[in-house]
From TrEMBL:
GO molecular function: RNA binding
CDD domains assigned to the protein according to its UniProt record, in alphabetical order: S4 (cd00165)
Top-rank taxon: Bacteria
Keywords: RNA-binding
Organism: Microbacterium keratanolyticum
Protein name (database record): RNA-binding protein
InterPro entries hit by this protein: S4_RNA-bd_sf
Pfam families to which the protein is assigned, alphabetical: S4_2 (PF13275)
Length: 75
């Protein structure tokens, strides 16, 4: 049986954060340029679906995944 994917809770200190910012803040991606490319290329999932909008606003409970790692937005 495959183990369930671990999801890290990441407190953003507010109500909303943009996808590109959250990728860096959560440590899923190192730089803004890398985040932009990964998002545009469709490699970043938000709540299980590819989202190509770097400026997408994330809210409490949204789950962002990239290269087998996931992080949940928390205020």
């Amino acid at each position: 049986m495959a183990s369930e994917e671990q999801i890290d809770d990441v407190s953003i200190g507010g109500d909303v954060i943009r996808l590109g910012q959250f990728l860096k803040f959560a440590g899923l991606i190192d730089s803004g340029g890398d985040a932009k490319e990964a998002i545009i290329d469709g490699y970043v999932l938000v709540n299980g679906e590819a989202d190509r909008r770097r400026g997408r606003q994330l809210h409490d409970g949204d789950i962002v995944s990239f290269e087998g790692r996931s992080a949940r937005v928390r205020p």
